[in-house]
Amino acid sequence: MSAQAKGPASYFPSIEKKYGRPVAEWKELIRSSPLTRHMELVAWLKTEHGLGHGHANALVAHTLAEKG
User: What InterPro entries does UniProt report for this protein, alphabetically (predicted)?
Assistant: First the structure.
């Protein structure tokens, strides 16, 4: 049995279901954006792509954490 995702990754199944795009695609959009600050990216995902705040925040947090 696999462990349940914790933190931002716990949102990923509902993000994929609600918006119809894989998380990898959202993360690539974030990485390719000229924006770099967390809340700028969250606002961008909300206004340009229609994501809710929690989903946008989870994607940005997880993507930026990968950068180190």
Answer: DUF4287
Alpha-carbon distance 63 to 61, whole Å? 6
pLDDT in tens, 32-44: 999 999 999 999 9
The tokens describing 39, both together, are 């809340």
pTM here is 0.89
Which residue do the tokens 């792509």 mark? 49
The encoded tokens of residue 24 equal 């990898």
Distance CA 34, CA 41 (A): 9
For residue 27, CA distances in Å to 3, 33, 49, 58, 62 come to 22, 10, 13, 11, 9
Tokens 């997880």 sit at which residue? 62
Task: Supply 32's token pair.
Answer: 């390719």
